Amino acid sequence: MADPSGFETLGPLDNASPRPAGPGGRDLEAVYDIPVQVSAVLGRATMQVSQLLKLGRGAVVELDRKLGEAVDIYVNNRLVARGEVVMVEDNRLGVTMTEIVKGDRGI
């Protein structure tokens, strides 16, 4: 099922099953259960400690991104993709991947 953005609506990752290695592919089954840390970074800001100490409830920290601009998706502190922030079940945030970032070693 596709949503208005053109991306397929997916269920929770807990229900996802890993894809088997294709012909000539590596057998990755041994690493399926290794946990990885996935982070979505909305943006970054640089400020002086004095500015940081003045922040309080309701303070706004201006980031280096514009509203609607893609967020960076990191796996174990390595940039692997970019995506858009979406709302998922129970008013929680999620990220829809829109671009895979290929590094020196590939993904």
Structure notes:
This protein is mainly β and 107 residues long. The protein has a domain at 32-100: SpoA-like (Surface presentation of antigens (SPOA), Roll). It contains 1 helix and 4 strands. Strands 1-2-3-4 form a 4-stranded antiparallel sheet, with no helix packed on it. It is extended, with a radius of gyration of 18 Å. Residues 30-101 form the Flagellar motor switch protein FliN-like C-terminal domain.
Structural class, from secondary structure content?
A: mainly beta
Physical arrangement of strands within the biggest beta sheet: 1-2-3-4
How much helix, percentage-wise, in residues?
under 10%
The low-confidence runs, each spanning 5 or more residues with pLDDT under 50, are: none
* Biggest β-sheet description: 4 strands, antiparallel
The CATH first-level class of the domain at 32-100 comes to Mainly Beta
The total of helices stands at 1
The CATH superfamily of the domain at 32-100 appears as: SpoA-like
How many individual β-strands? 4
Here the CATH topology of the domain at 32-100 equals Surface presentation of antigens (SPOA)
CATH architecture of the domain at 32-100: Roll
Keywords: Bacterial flagellum, Cell membrane, Cell projection, Chemotaxis, Cilium, Flagellar rotation, Flagellum, Membrane
Protein name: Flagellar motor switch protein FliN
Family: Belongs to the FliN/MopA/SpaO family.
GO cellular component, one term: plasma membrane
Write a concise keyword list for the protein shown above:
FliN, single chain, membrane, mainly beta, Surface presentation of antigens (SPOA)
